[in-house]
Design a protein that fits this description.
mainly alpha; single chain
């Protein structure tokens, strides 16, 4: 792993994704921080050619928007939050695969 600007920015996206997962597990669903993260990741997916599939990012974005802007039952909200954390885990995995060249 070379400390290139691309690798460092990808590592920052991994750290930011871990922070978003922490916020979701903590139960704080009315914050805009995940939406800022998803904006950055959508730009990252469009601008760079990586192993990260855009559909995974878009699914996580839709789940994040559902949590932020919908009024749901507590159990349904926990299921959506769990699905979003799984999507974020997938984003973390593909970003690690990009940094560490796991092709």
């Amino acid at each position: 792993m070379d400390p290139t600007p691309f690798n460092v920015s990808t590592a920052l996206l991994i750290a930011f994704a871990c922070w978003v997962i922490y916020l979701r597990l903590k139960g704080n669903s009315d914050t805009n921080i995940p939406l800022i993260y998803y904006g950055i990741v959508v730009y990252y997916v469009v601008a760079y050619d990586t192993q990260l599939q855009p559909m995974v990012v878009y699914i996580a974005l839709v789940l994040g928007l559902l949590l932020r802007f919908e009024f749901m039952n507590v159990k349904f909200m926990k299921v959506i939050s769990l699905l979003e954390c799984c999507a974020l885990g997938t984003i973390i995995y593909f970003n690690l695969a990009t940094i560490l060249s796991w092709y």
